[in-house]
Amino acid sequence: MGEKPEHGRMRTGDEPGNFAPTNTIDENAAQLSRYVEYAQTDRNAWHVDIVAHSMGGLISRRYIHAAMPIYPDGKPQVGHLVMLGTPNRGSSCADLISIPLELAGKSMDALRELRPVSVLRFNQVNVNRKGVPFSILAGNPLPPVCRMLAMNDGVVAEPSAIWTIEDHAVERTIHTSLTGAAQFSSFVKPRLAIGPGKQGAQDKLAALLPGGGGGRLFEFARACLEFLGLADPKDPDAGDFSKVAMLAPGQVMEIAIPVEDARNFGVTFVAANSVSVTLADDKGAPLGSNLAGKPEASQLFRGILVDRAIARATWKLTLRNDDKVERQVVLSTWSNAR
């Protein structure tokens, strides 16, 4: 993290398609603590601001709640937390990919902790902002993916990013581009220079709710129902069909995909940007593609959406690895998203 990563190195996952082990949020928060201490010493600064992208926002929130000190001047160590595309209510994409990985005997803590049910629990615990103002920039250039029928940045739906944060903005930028120079100039820099002012009354009220600072009222209600045994506490399932596939260099693999009558249908997958995926119906007619080398191939969660009613059949998904090394693909299908 920062300009001197040797003073604090997070492990949240490398390039798309790399399923190496990662740190937990707690472990990454400990690394953030190391880096903040270094930055204070290096710059002779009592207070610092944090700009965090994606899961870095959850890590920063954990650090603020659990470890950040309040100094003798009465002010928090962190002057402002500015988040970019943080999944403050989780990502449905993580549901669809994490579960088949675990069924295959693999697990990525970072992916598991992005699941909505995991972030719900996170929000119920990490409620203390200690006076640190929060801001969030959400991206929404993409149509529905991963069973979330809301505009999104390819990883995080707009409502998940905004959550209960009063100081927020939305722009048509994909997840991986929210750290660009334009976003820094228009959104980040003004908040570091002058701040957004005091937190609004709505934000103060949210801080009083379980998951507050924090969780929404419906999250609190759901937690109560689960405690009383009146709601199903099980995590969302992995989708209609899932598979973990290994592709040799240059290999083409065809996978039969069972589909049922549904309002809509989608495929969500994680793979290196050298992997192409195409979907065809039972008559061989093309339904969609996500091709190697295209801009959409650089996204963490990739997908194909069939946004119309479909009938029961067996479709065909074709995977092609254009790389010179073996590549893994983790995929899930879903339907009837609302």
Explain what you see.
It is a single chain. The chain is of the alpha/beta class and 338 residues long. The chain folds into two domains: 5-227, 3-Layer(aba) Sandwich (Rossmann fold), CATH 3.40.50; 241-335, Jelly Rolls. Helix content is 28%, strand content 23%. It has nine helices and twelve strands. The strands form three sheets. The chain has a four-stranded parallel sheet with strand order 1-2-3-4, sandwiched between helices. Strands 5-12-7-10 form a four-stranded antiparallel sheet, covered by helices on one side. Strands 6-11-8-9 form a four-stranded antiparallel sheet, with no helix packed on it. Strand 8 (275-280) and strand 9 form a beta hairpin. The radius of gyration is 21 Å and the shape is elongated. The two termini are 37 Å apart. 41% of the residues are buried.
Name the descriptors.
338 residues, alpha/beta, Rossmann fold, Jelly Rolls, 2 domains, 4-stranded parallel β-sheet, 4-stranded antiparallel β-sheet, 9 helices, 12 strands, elongated
Describe the structure concisely.
With 338 residues, the protein is α/β, with parallel strands linked by helices.
Q: Per CATH, which architecture of the largest domain?
A: 3-Layer(aba) Sandwich
H and E string: HEHEHHHEHEHHHEEEEEEEE
Q: Could you name the CATH class of the largest domain?
A: Alpha Beta
Contiguous uncertain segments of 5+ residues = 195-237
Distance between the termini: 37 Å
Number of distinct beta strands: 12
- The portion of residues forming beta strands comes to 15-25%
Query: And the CATH topology of the largest domain?
Result: Rossmann fold
Domains (count): 2
Helical content stands at: 25-40%
Q: Strand arrangement, largest sheet?
A: 1-2-3-4
Which whole number gives the mean pLDDT? 83
What structural category do the secondary elements indicate?
alpha/beta
Count of alpha and pi helical runs: 9
How is the main sheet built? 4 strands, parallel
Q: Radius of gyration, Cα only, in angstroms?
A: 21 Å
* Global geometry: elongated
